[in-house]
Every structure is written in structure tokens, then in C-alpha cells.
Amino acid sequence: MKLGNLSIDAIEKRAGVAFPKKLKDYMSTRKQENASDVAAGRWHCFDIPFVLVCGDMETATEIHKHLEFLGSAFKEPLQISITSTSHAIKPSEKKHE
Could you tell me the residue ranges of all domains in the chain? Predict the structure, then answer.
């Protein structure tokens, strides 16, 4: 069971960090109020559990790249997940090092 519909300000307060302005601008037009089937290019954040659900890998990656450097400052872990695996990299598509 997942509960909640957190705003950007509520996420910042719970996490104990201030999001960069560029991220807040990006997220402000992409919040999906309905928690069911988060659409590509959109996000929804639950309070319980504290998880930000993105509709596609591109949205999750964009949000993550802005938060990555703040990781150690978070007072509570925020999970980022996607609703669809259609954009996930299949093992056969991974670059070989």
C-alpha cells in the first residue's frame, strides 16, 4: 500500500535538503496528481513509503542527476522508481567495458 501525494516543498522538507532551482523548475510542470499509472514525463511522490515514482527512465534519470550530489545530505532516503520497464536497458543492450 502506498499513501500520499507530496509536493516538491514537502519532499524537500521530509528529505531535509533544498532542491536546485533547475530541478524544481523541471519538476513543477511534470507532477501527476493521480498516483495510478504515472505517465511518461511525469512523476508522483508518495509519503508512505517515501518514493518518487516516474513514468519513464528519462524522467527518473533527469531527477536523479540533480539529486545525486545531495545524497549524503538527505536525512531520510528517497527512492526513485519507474512505473514501466519499457525503457529499461536489457542485458543484451548494455555497453561492454
Answer: 8-88
